[in-house]
């Protein structure tokens, strides 16, 4: 899978153009020089940043002089390995210059960006300029058999040779290639495995499917089946397997090693005809690369994720990836909005519906139909949030069996208590507990008893859901219980909207604390008897609970 591009800018004057490019690639992250410009991510050293992105294969759109980009990447360019697209774009959007990554689609990106900025791309690749297409970079669904042979072929065409196409190459319909019935050069679109003849270029369409019955020796059997039938393995579009193998790890690993999608069929799946058989394995030929990707359906995936407290930089990369790959997103509207940027093709199922189990069941229904589904919580999904509800829905006796075949994962996030604690210093530096003060899902008497025990055990405590319009008196009662175990000078931290634009952090004493200081967007930390506070250089206060108790 290709990575989302990185847009790299040096100062605020490039930000407007950067955002216009980001609208084209919603998953792209804008990296800004720290201290100079507020972007999605901050960097300190331009050269290091560019080189790291390049090494990781990330497409780079740098809004600065081409020369700076070239000099920064120069040390990495001597070895010509796989190259991500690298483009320089004038910060006012007036010029788009593809620099590197001709085979990674840099010219295509340059044209897309130029079209969005309403300028023309500075394409310098001669074959592409002349022919309006890059023969060596066919669209997805087609693979070049041999790059070196391809280069010779294109230079022959530039030298005046004419071309004939044998097979289906729909993307070349509107090209300016020098076509002729009796062309001296032939482009073959074929699933056949053979060495190219002189004056021939081979492109393999990904139209073949391997239908497997079992997972034994899969890679070897596929290789043999293709070889015996004279078929190019580069034409393999997907593995097909019976739905009964949906949870089979060996099969999933084999597909990812072969770098092809894995899809599942049932007895009523319409299959294309088999063109070869070998050792229990069939090779099927679909009508087109697109058709090959629609047979059967993928294993559905349900990712239960935590966004973290709010700021994008506190979201884990695994969560960002799950969001980017999602087809359906479920959660409160506020959380779905916090998951932006999202694409228009991603379906948002926003609900203010408090019925967590119902939402969990809906998520399973979507995932069991083969979709990639994300259920969104704030903070961590396992802390007073959706992960437990999802597991409860799955364990229910009436849960359909196909829910169990869904690839279910829980991806952690930074919970409000941890985000608030970090802002204040380290109030949870020793033993602590997390308590929800909401009695919607448990009896109030149990909350009182837990507060009493936690107070007696001298645990620091983090209160989630401390108060709401429907629960106005509970916090006051909770504080009475806490006060029976702690002195009035016990340190209290109030974190409100931590990691969000309205973030506010307060440090008070237990004696000063009143329920009016707290609302449902606040996380309350009550220190233990050991929790301490002291002034910071900037006027605020640090709060921490020492790692050890004084020894008696
Ligand atoms: N799963 C979430 C908690 C959901 S319960 C997590 O792990 O953080 C909702 C409660 O969490 C709120 O009532 C509030 O007490 C707390 N909370 C959530 N996000 C917060 C934030 N950004 N700042 C402060 N408190 C927050």
TrEMBL record:
GO terms for molecular function: precorrin-3B C17-methyltransferase activity. The keyword Methyltransferase applies. Pathway: Cofactor biosynthesis; adenosylcobalamin biosynthesis. Keywords: Cobalamin biosynthesis, Methyltransferase, S-adenosyl-L-methionine, Transferase. Its EC number is 2.1.1.131. Residues 302-513 form the Tetrapyrrole methylase domain. Residues 49-127 form the Cobalamin synthesis G N-terminal domain. InterPro entries: 4pyrrol_Mease (IPR000878), 4pyrrol_Methylase_sf (IPR035996), 4pyrrole_Mease_sub1 (IPR014777), 4pyrrole_Mease_sub2 (IPR014776), CbiG_N (IPR021744), Cbl_synth_CobJ/CibH_dom (IPR006363), GbiG_N_sf (IPR038029), Precorrin_MeTrfase (IPR051810). The keyword Transferase applies. It is an enzyme of class 2 (transferase). GO terms for biological process: cobalamin biosynthetic process; methylation. This is Precorrin-3B C17-methyltransferase.
């Amino acid at each position: 899978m290709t990575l989302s591009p990185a847009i790299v800018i040096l100062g605020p004057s490039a930000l407007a153009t950067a955002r216009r490019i980001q609208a084209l690639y919603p998953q792209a992250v804008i990296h800004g020089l720290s201290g100079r410009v507020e972007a999605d991510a901050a960097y300190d050293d331009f050269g290091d940043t560019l080189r790291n992105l390049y090494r990781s294969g990330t497409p780079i759109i740098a809004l600065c002089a081409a020369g700076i980009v070239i000099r920064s990447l120069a040390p990495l360019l001597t070895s010509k390995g796989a190259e991500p697209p690298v483009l320089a774009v004038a910060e006012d959007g007036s010029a788009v210059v593809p620099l590197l990554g001709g085979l990674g689609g840099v010219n295509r990106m340059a044209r897309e960006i130029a079209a969005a900025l309403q300028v023309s791309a500075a394409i310098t690749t001669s074959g592409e300029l002349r022919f309006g297409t890059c023969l060596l970079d066919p669209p997805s669904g087609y693979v070049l058999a041999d790059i070196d042979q391809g280069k010779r072929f294109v230079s022959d065409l530039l030298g005046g040779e004419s071309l004939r196409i044998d097979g289906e190459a729909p993307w070349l319909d509107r090209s300016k290639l020098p076509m002729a019935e009796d062309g001296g050069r032939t482009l073959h679109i074929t699933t056949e495995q053979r060495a190219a003849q002189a004056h021939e270029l081979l492109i393999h369409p990904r139209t073949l499917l391997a239908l497997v019955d079992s997972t034994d020796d899969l890679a070897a059997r596929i290789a043999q089946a293709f070889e015996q039938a004279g078929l190019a393995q580069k034409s393999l579009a997907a593995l097909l397997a019976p739905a009964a193998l949906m949870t089979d790890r060996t099969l999933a690993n084999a597909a990812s090693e072969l770098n092809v999608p894995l899809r599942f069929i049932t007895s009523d799946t319409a299959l294309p005809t088999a063109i070869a058989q070998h050792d229990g394995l069939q090779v099927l030929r679909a009508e087109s690369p697109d058709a090959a990707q629609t047979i059967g359906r993928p294993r559905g995936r349900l990712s239960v994720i935590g966004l973290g407290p709010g700021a994008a930089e506190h979201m884990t990369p695994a969560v960002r990836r799950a969001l980017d790959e999602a087809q359906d997103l479920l959660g409160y509207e506020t959380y779905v909005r916090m998951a932006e940027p999202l694409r228009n093709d991603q379906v948002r199922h926003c609900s203010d519906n408090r019925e967590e189990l119902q939402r969990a069941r809906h998520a399973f229904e979507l995932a069991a139909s083969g979709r990639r589904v994300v259920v969104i919580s704030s903070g961590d999904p396992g802390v007073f949030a959706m992960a437990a509800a999802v597991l409860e829905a799955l364990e229910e006796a009436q849960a359909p069996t196909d829910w169990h075949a869904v690839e279910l994962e829980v991806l952690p996030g930074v919970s409000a208590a941890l985000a608030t604690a970090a802002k204040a210093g380290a109030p949870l530096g020793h033993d602590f507990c997390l308590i929800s003060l909401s009695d919607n899902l448990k009896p109030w008497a149990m909350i009182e008893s837990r507060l009493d025990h936690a107070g007696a055990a001298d645990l620091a405590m983090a209160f989630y859901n401390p108060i709401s319009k429907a629960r106005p008196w509970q916090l006051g009662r909770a504080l009475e219980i806490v006060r029976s175990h702690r002195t009035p000078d016990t340190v209290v931290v109030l974190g409100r909207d931590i990691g969000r634009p309205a973030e506010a952090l307060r440090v008070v004493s237990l004696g000063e604390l009143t329920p009016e200081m707290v609302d449902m967007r606040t996380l309350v930390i009550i220190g233990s008897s050991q929790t301490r506070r002291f002034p910071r250089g900037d006027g605020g206060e640090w709060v921490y609970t020492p790692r050890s108790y004084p020894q008696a």
